[in-house]
Each structure stands twice: as C-alpha cells, then as structure tokens.
Amino acid sequence: MLMTFIGVPLSVIGSLMHWSNIVLFIIYCLTIVALASYMGRATESLAIVAGPRIGGLLNATFGNAVELIISIFSLKAGLVGIVLASLTGSVLGNLLLVAGLSFFIGGLKFKRQSFNVYDARHNSGLLMFAVIIAFVIPEVFSINMNETKTLSLSIGISVILIILYLAALFFKLVTHRGVYQPSTEKVAHEEEEPEWGKGRAIAVLFIATIAVAYISEHLVHTFEYVGETLGWSELFIGVIIVAIVGNAAEHASAIVMAFKNKMDIAVEIAIGSTLQVAMFVLPVLVLVSLFFDTTMPLLFSWQELIAMVSSVLLMVVISNDGESNWFEGLTLLAAYLIMGIGFYLL
Amino acid sequence: MLMTFIGVPLSVIGSLMHWSNIVLFIIYCLTIVALASYMGRATESLAIVAGPRIGGLLNATFGNAVELIISIFSLKAGLVGIVLASLTGSVLGNLLLVAGLSFFIGGLKFKRQSFNVYDARHNSGLLMFAVIIAFVIPEVFSINMNETKTLSLSIGISVILIILYLAALFFKLVTHRGVYQPSTEKVAHEEEEPEWGKGRAIAVLFIATIAVAYISEHLVHTFEYVGETLGWSELFIGVIIVAIVGNAAEHASAIVMAFKNKMDIAVEIAIGSTLQVAMFVLPVLVLVSLFFDTTMPLLFSWQELIAMVSSVLLMVVISNDGESNWFEGLTLLAAYLIMGIGFYLL
Amino acid sequence: MLMTFIGVPLSVIGSLMHWSNIVLFIIYCLTIVALASYMGRATESLAIVAGPRIGGLLNATFGNAVELIISIFSLKAGLVGIVLASLTGSVLGNLLLVAGLSFFIGGLKFKRQSFNVYDARHNSGLLMFAVIIAFVIPEVFSINMNETKTLSLSIGISVILIILYLAALFFKLVTHRGVYQPSTEKVAHEEEEPEWGKGRAIAVLFIATIAVAYISEHLVHTFEYVGETLGWSELFIGVIIVAIVGNAAEHASAIVMAFKNKMDIAVEIAIGSTLQVAMFVLPVLVLVSLFFDTTMPLLFSWQELIAMVSSVLLMVVISNDGESNWFEGLTLLAAYLIMGIGFYLL
Questions:
Q1: What is the tens place of the pLDDT at every residue in A202-238?
Q2: Which of A48, B167, C88, C260 is deepest in the core (most CB within 10 A)?
Q3: Which residue of A has its CA nearest to C127?
Q4: How far, in Å, CA of C69 to CA of C87, rounded?
C-alpha cells in the first residue's frame, strides 16, 4: 500500500518530464489502483459510521466524480463517441465486472450470500427504466426524426432522468428510509469498529479523489499511443480500458465488502454506481454539451445499446431473488468477457 | 358532479348546432370525465357486491366497449394507422398512466401497498405472451413475407389470442376461482356497504356507457381540427389524446380504488384493461377488418412496438413483487412522459 | 409398446428395400416415439435411483446425443442453415412444447404444481445468458464485422459457453449439491420402487439410443421428399418437424413426470435440455465445423433469434415463481403454435 506514496509523485514527475507513454500508462494504472484501495478503506470506515445505504452512495459518488470530470473535458474536445463509449463501458463494467467479481469472490468464501431483496427490486425497476425505456426510446424514435427533434427528445429524457434520480434519493433517504430494512441488520453494522475516524476518512477520500482525477486526466492522453502500439480500437479503449481503470475504486471496495459478506453494500456499489452513471452522469453530460460546440444526443451505437439492454436483463433476472453465489458471479463475468471480445473485434 | 347533467345535453345540442370544434372538444372531454366518475362509482358499488375479480373485469369491459365501438367505425373508414395508434396508446395508457397514477396517488397516502402477487404473476405471463410473442413475431417474420402471408399470420395469431383470452377467463372464474386468493380478503370486502344497489348501479353503468359512446364518436371528429390548430400529429392524437380521454373511466376508478387501498382492484383495472385491449379488442378488430375494404394486419410501427415491449418489461419487473409505493408510480409516469414526448416529436 | 419390436426391424428392412418415402416417414416417426417411451421408462427407473438432478441430466443427455450426431452429419454435408434451424427448433420445442405439455397435462390432474424455485431461477439466469447474451451479441456485432471477425467472435463465445456449461455442472453436482434442495424431497424419492434395475435400465437406454440414432439418420433423408409432397419449407421442417421428432424422448418422459407430479424432473428435462442444446451442443458444433469445409458462425436468422429471445423471456416470467398450472402450460403451447405458423409461412 506504499505504492500510493511512490506512485503519486512519480505520476506528477513523469507527466512533467514526458516519459514514454507505455511507462506512464503502467505507473498511472498502478497508482490509481493503489489510490482506489485507499478510497475503499476510507469509504468502508465511513460506511460503518453512516450505514450501508449512505456508504454505498458515497462509494458511487466518489467513483463517478472522476468519470464526470473526464467526460466533461472529452465533450469540450468534441469527442462525443468516446464519452458515450466510456459511459457504456461504465454501465457494463459496474453491472457485469464489479458485481460479477463481488458475487464470484464473495461466493468462493461463502456458499450463499444474501442482500436486501427490496433494494434489489427497487434497483431492478430503475435499471429497466433507465436502459430499456430512456436509452431505447430515443434510439428507435430517432430513426424517423431529424437532428433537431432527436436533440429535443434527448433533452426531455435527460431532464426526466435527473428528476427521477433525485426522486429516488428522496425515496430512499427520506420517505422510505429504513422501511424495507430488516431492523437486525443495522444493529450488526453499528457494532463494528471503523478503521479510521470520520474526519480522517473524509480527508483521505477527498485527497485521493483529487489525485485520482489528476492522474486519470493524464492517463486518458496515453490511451491513444497505447492503443496504436497494442492495436486496440478507440471503442475498445473507451468501453473496456477506461471503464476498468475508471471504476477501480468501485471494484476494490465492492470486492472487499463481498469478501466481508456485506453484500448489501457490494450490490449498492455495483448497481448504485450503474444507476448514477445512467441516470445522473449521462443526462448531465447531455445538458452540459448544449453549451459546447458539439452537442451530444442520447444516441448510443446499436452495439452499445444492445450490450447494455441484455446486461440489464441478465442482471435483473440474477439479482431479483436477493441471493448470490460464485456461479452467478461467473455468469456475469462470462457475459462481460463476451462483450469485451465483441468490442475488441468491432 | 352535476357536470354530467349539464354536459350530456350540452354535447348533444353543440354537436347538432355545429359549434366551434375547440369549444366542443372541451365540452366533450369534461363530460366524458364526469361520466367516467359516475361509471367509477357504479362499478365500485358492483365490485363490492361481486368481489374484486369480477369488479375489475366489469371496469375493463365498460372502459373498452367504448374503444371497440370507436375502432370499428375508424376501420370502416379505412383508418388502420389510427386504430393501431389508439390501441397502442390504450396499452401504454393503462400500463403506465393508469397504473402509475394509482401507485403514485395511493402511495402518497399509504407507505407500502400490496396486491395479490399470484394475480400479478398471472398477468405478467399474459402481458409477455400478448406483447413479446403475439405482437413481436408478426413484426419480425413479416420482413421476409408478402402481404397475403402476413395477413394469414395475423389471422392465425388473432384467433390464438382470443382463444387464450377466453381460456384465461375460464381459468380465473371457473377452474381456479379463489385458488390464489387469501380467504381473509374476501371477508373484508363483504363487510363494506355498496353506495348504490345492484340494479341502480347497472342502470347507471348502462346509460353512462351509451352516453360516453355517443360523445366519444363526436369527439373523434373534432380531433382533426384540434390537431391542426394546436400543431399535434395524428400519431400523437391517436397514441396519447384518444388514449387518455378514452380511458378516463379506468383512470378515475383505478385511482379511487388505490386511494382506498384496494390495490387488487386498481391493478386489475390497469393491467386487466391492457390485456383486454391486447388479447381481445385488437384481435377482434383484425378479424372484423376482413369484412371491410381495408384489412388490418397485426403490424405496428417499430416505434409503437418497442414502446409497448419496453413498457411491458418495465411493468413486469415493477409489479412482480406484489407491492407498490409512490416511487414505483412515479417511475411508470416518467416512462409514460418519455413515450408522450417521443410520439409528440415523431 | 410392442411397436418397438416391430418398428425397429421394419425400419431397417424398409430403408434397405427403398420403400416409399412417405411410408418410411410414418414408420420412422412411430418407431422413434415408441423407442422414446422405452427410454422414458428406463430414465425414470434410473432417476429414482439417482435422484431428480442426475435423472434430469440423463434425460437431457440421451435426448440430445441423437441431435448432436445428426447435426454433425449435416454439418459435414455443409447444411449450416438446417443445423441452426433444427437447434432453434430444439430450443423452442423444449422450452415451449415440452414444458408447455408438461404444465398443461400435469395441470389437468393437479390444481397447482410446484417445482424447486432455486433451480428455476438458476436456469433462468443461464437461459438469459445463453440466448440474450451469447446469441444476441454476435448477431448485433456482426453487422459491422467482416466474416473472419464474426467467426473469431463465434469461436470465443462458443468456448465461453462450454466452460460456463461445465462450471454449471460443477456448481450443481459438486459445490452446491443439495444446497438449494429441501431435505424432505429426497426422502420421498428414495421410497419409490424403480420399475427396472440399474443394469437393465442402462442397457435399455443404450440400445434404444443407438436404434433412435440409426432411424433418425434415415428419417432426415425422407424429409426432403415429404417436404416437397406436403409443401413444407426446409425452415419449417428444420424448426418444427425435426424438433418434435428429435425431442420425442424428452416429450414422453417430461409428460410422464408431470403426470406423476414430479415437476422438478419435468422442468429439469425441458429447461435442462434447452440449456444443453444452447450451451453445449451448439458451441461444440461451431468448433467442430472448423474442421469441415463450411464453417458455422454463431449467427441465426433474425426470425430464429427473436423467436428464441421472446420464448426465453416468456419462460423466465412464467417459471420464476416455482409453480405451474394448466393455463401456464396453455400459454406456452399457444406461443409455440404462433412460432409454428410463423415458420410455416416464412
């Protein structure tokens, strides 16, 4: 874990001195993963203090703040295709890779793991709404629409997505706080000792987020060279590489939670993060793009859309019983691998 | 509620004296809504006497009789596109708007509302069958078929839909009557006092249905002018406006039931009505169209089909646990709003 | 049941003496059905000894061994389209016809039948993975791919399908054997008396399988003439006729099990057999085709793909509650009938 104290200054020095892109790429990735594990520990400490829901929310927020910042820079540069690809990758990565690894690794230790079935169903409904309704409708309707109307539809849907996302927070944290929570669960969490105090955990989260944001931005610029050197397409880098590195924080903390049998938090990180990308980061970017030269309508490629639709349907069927095991995790990982091969060959 | 006694004669006089179409449009709509609330009260009285299932069935029947009559007149005039649009709108309206409003408004009063989970699953299976199988298959197969074969397939599927719909009634009312019903539920309903007697309720329902049918027919002819004046497309009028006004009866009574925490009846009205349109009204119209000049194959536009498919998938996931709350209602309403914007811009 | 002792020698003599194809077709079909009932009785005897899971596995294996052999011969002859059609038919036949008949006929005798809900959910996840992910992704991604890349993607997905299928067996039979099984169930099975001893049952299964394989191969050659005489298209013969006759064994034994209220085994045969075709027979054939002149990518026609996708979605919704009744069976049969009409007219 000392990697952090070496990696961060090394990243700064390396980027200023223009080292080889492949070397920088490796340094950046390792540093981000190291920082992510710090963020995981800080989030866990906060989660113990704040309860599983707010803890999961914190995780999702600190994972996706990075993405939102990178995407805004990309949009400013007019790279609409890469933004949509990396958001698709984020949805697929959280839904299949993060949840898959959590279920799989947690399942190697525990025979059956269970999580709050009400939260799972609530999340299923939102996943269906965001992907099957809000992403599919503009794709199918835009076939017979001109560009102006497609953009109007995208703006309308983006506003609806953001409002429903805020309503979901209001539902979870205000009107129905604890309504679907077994009372025993909370007690169990309160008994645990947080590793760090509230203040220190927040400080670590804050500093690590800034460091991750700084390094991520530089990392993005190495992708082009790495892609050329290794023969990867832009789509593959966007959907798979950006998503894996960009979601390292969620990966680390979700797996740690699964290994400690706190599946509520692991699922909240994986699916909560997916929902935040789909219902908040993406629509915000659509609206932000109106102030830039290139606007971004809510239009994925058919491959990206179908990949997300089928992933959501798989996840809904797998998570709907509130239980997981290693095989369910393996199924999700296999689905991710198929998507990865598909985007690599595209 | 005195609107009814003013509205009905006013509608008759107005249509005979050829008042301005915008004025007539407003009078017609208000009168139908007023009549619908009467029908709601009459249906509720009958529902208390007859039990929740037959009550729900009555609601669906009296709501859709109007639609069947209007659609037959439209088919006779060769308006196949408008008939399919208004039936799509009826499916979307019942599934998203009626159920959404019931869940939302009921959920504002009660924290968690529950309905018979067996009925919900039975309905889910039928929704999947009707929309995902019976509507999707002719759409995909007709790509490689000529017109004659497409019509043959449509006729075959229509006959199967009607037979399965009758079998579903036989299942619900004869072989499995009360099998999936908790015994306590029935007792609770019997204790309530119906507002009107059986005879009076039936008389009110009968007269109101005729009045609604009469006014609806005239209402349809004002749409063209209203559409031109307000800049609405025919598709938007068919899918959204006809559906909202045409299903006012279901809207009113479903929301009243939800507000009284009788979610079994509210869900039965919303989903039962969807199923009646999809499995009975639509296939009957396909068969009836064979006697007219213009035949109507079971072929929706891709936008209509995908809108129905995604709505059904959302509804199945949301209703499958036999519980509802305000947020689930809001999700359905948000989905309806997205569809509405889409069809408006199309 | 003496049909077997007449049918097998009659089939051999008939094929050697080149009787009329229509006569041979009828003899072959009747003999296979007779043999299938023998295989059903032998499998049932073994199932009582071995428990429901292994019993179901045995059923699926002995039903699909025949298909694998026929398909390899067809591939060698370059008939890629017919192989994909007959595998599609096998998936549809098992999922809709076999399960539909089991639910329907079992439901005529018993009001409500239940099966292991954990197994049903496990199977739902695998069905979603195999059809919605592994079959849909190559179809959508290949639109923008050349032939070489499509074949690479097909090979990758085939290897993943086979590995996940083996992992599923490992999960069911090793790491989670009996984890999701109510303990009472096993006891109930052990008390029953098997009709035949283990040795005799295995011998009957072995001989009957060889006889079925021999006759099936000859049967295939009569299809062309029968199709011409009766006006059936190759697609219809592949999807419907081959599937019905080829899965006669599963049909017979699943229905027998349903009639004895052993729904666990009936569902295991129907869905387990579907999964074996989709996750084992099909990917093995893709890999085997690499050694032949004509390679077979994992690319169905759109009609075949959508038929399978919608069947899987219907089955997941219907089976997810672990209960069945005659109406659910009728719904599946109605879906099969619609597919049948569709492929007949195509």
A1: 888 888 888 877 887 787 777 778 888 888 877 888 7
A2: C88
A3: A314
A4: 12
